[in-house]
Design goal:
Length: 488
């Protein structure tokens, strides 16, 4: 039955071709006839094109069906590899579709239909058929692309790189088709007459549809870039160093593919999308650091008795400043291996530190040889409106002791206050009108948080490495170096 249908289509196409040739011969005869003799011709012969109106309509039907069949076959055989010897990078199926468009352009150019109104109607029909064929094409070629994606059993960087190349090639196909369709009405001489805004919008809908498919293809490309890196590192989290070279190589090669195959708005869209996703990945350490400090605050609030001592403070927000009064400390408990005097001071930090990097963090003067010192110092830290509204922001009080004339310091304990829990103080009130807070000093010896193992294995992340360096210093497992980079 299918073979019979194909023979029927071929017969219909052959007949249409014969009619087309007959039309050309008659037109040539009329054009070559002397003007005097032409006036003597029967009017029906002069207007011979009217004989072929039905045939042209039939040819449009056959051409549309034949175009869909040809495109379908081309997609099935397209390996999504660039065609050699063409100026614009494209796959074989796109080349076939462009050939179909060119054949249609040649047909209407040779036909030279004399009736402009009827020609406009024919051209509108042909342009619509080509647009429908293009929509069918992008649907099928995108399905083929997704099918190759779903056939992969697991993330493989070389295979993913090949898939990214195919995504870029499909995007190039769509870009070429969109440009061709945009120019097609002018190339054919189609004139939009007496169109209101809605009708004009309807006529460009197929082109808008192609643009939406192109954006989906670009999104698929960016998703592959990011998921390949994330999944590969997730599968070998504890073996980061052995796979780092492969991941870095994949990143460089995929970036080269993007630069070589995309341009203009497409390149800008992919770059912006990738940068947003990469930024989110970079901020993962920051989110884990915030989670760690919240876990420390929770451990502090669950204490029934002081662990390392008690720090008494007052905190208030006045206008655009955070005011802190560090009053005193009681019962400072020094590390067991510490043999020096209790020469203590308190340093204020704000967490997350990267959101407060423009603020100089103050500290009290050192109080010598006193396990229950009185500091009684006030500090004002100017905060922007944005900084005051940072979710889960904390004030961190670090109590340390100095030894060797201040050349070395040891952590004693830390305590936390949520920034969003601090009362707002009127400009005419003194901070002494605020109730004091007595905070239990702790050390992070038994903090239960899922973020700690995650941070531990992010060895390529500067913030994570610095975090564990500081954590070891707090626990007395590393010497204090006075590093300017803070984990807060």
């Amino acid at each position: 039955m299918d073979q019979h249908n194909r023979f029927g289509e071929m017969d219909a196409l052959d007949m249409s071709t014969t009619m087309f040739h007959l039309y050309l011969v008659i037109r040539l005869f009329i054009d070559e006839t002397d003007k005097v003799l032409k006036s003597a011709h029967n009017a029906d012969i002069v207007d011979f094109h009217k004989w072929f109106t039905g045939g042209i309509t039939h040819w449009c039907d056959i051409f549309a069906l034949k175009a869909l069949s040809t495109v379908s076959h081309a997609i099935d055989n397209d390996q999504l590899e660039p065609v050699e010897g063409v100026q614009l990078k494209q796959s074989s199926s796109a080349a076939v579709l462009l050939t179909i468009v060119h054949e249609m352009e040649m047909f209407w150019e040779e036909l030279a239909w004399p009736d402009p109104v009827e020609l406009n109607r024919f051209l509108k029909r042909s342009i619509g058929d080509i647009c429908s064929c293009c929509i069918y094409y992008v649907d099928r070629i995108s399905t083929k692309l997704h099918h190759q994606e779903t056939n992969r059993k697991q993330t493989n960087l070389p295979a993913t790189l090949e898939l990214i190349k195919k995504c870029a090639l499909v995007n190039s196909n769509l870009s070429i088709l969109i440009d061709v369709l945009m120019d097609l009405p002018d190339v054919l001489g189609y004139k939009q007459v007496d169109l209101n805004a809605n009708e004009a919008n309807e006529q460009i809908l197929p082109i808008k549809g192609l643009n939406s498919w192109k954006i989906k293809t670009l999104k698929l490309l960016t998703d592959h870039c990011m998921s390949a890196i994330k999944v590969s590192m997730g599968e070998a989290l504890r073996k980061f160093d052995p796979i780092r070279h492969d991941v870095e190589s994949f990143t460089r090669q995929s970036a080269a593919v993007i630069r070589e195959n995309l341009w203009g708005d497409d390149l800008k869209l992919v770059e912006n999308t990738l940068w947003s996703q990469l930024t989110a990945e970079f901020e993962e350490s920051m989110r884990n650091l915030i989670a760690y400090h919240l876990a420390c605050l929770d451990a502090q609030l669950r204490l029934d008795e002081p662990d390392r001592g008690v720090l008494t403070v007052r905190c208030a927000i006045r206008n655009d400043s955070l005011e802190v009064q560090i009053i005193s400390a009681e019962g400072i408990k020094l590390p067991l291996d510490y043999k020096g005097n209790c020469d203590s001071y308190v340093k204020i930090n704000l967490a997350p530190g990267y959101r407060f990097s423009d603020i100089v963090m103050p500290k009290t003067r050192t109080k010598s040889k006193n396990h229950s010192p009185t500091y009684n110092e006030k500090f004002a830290l100017k905060l922007s409106q944005e900084q005051r509204e940072i979710p889960d922001a904390l004030i961190v009080f670090n109590l340390k002791v100095s030894e060797m004339l201040g050349l070395s310091q040891r952590y004693v304990g830390e305590c936390f206050v949520r920034l969003d829990s601090i009362p707002i103080l009127d400009s005419d009130r003194d901070i002494k009108s605020i109730e004091v807070q007595q905070l239990f000093l702790t050390l992070p010896e038994s903090i239960e948080s899922d973020c700690i193992p995650v941070l531990e294995y992010r060895q390529g992340d500067k913030e994570a490495v610095q975090f564990f360096k500081k954590l070891k210093q707090k626990l007395g497992k590393a010497a204090y170096t006075g590093s300017l980079v803070s984990i807060y």
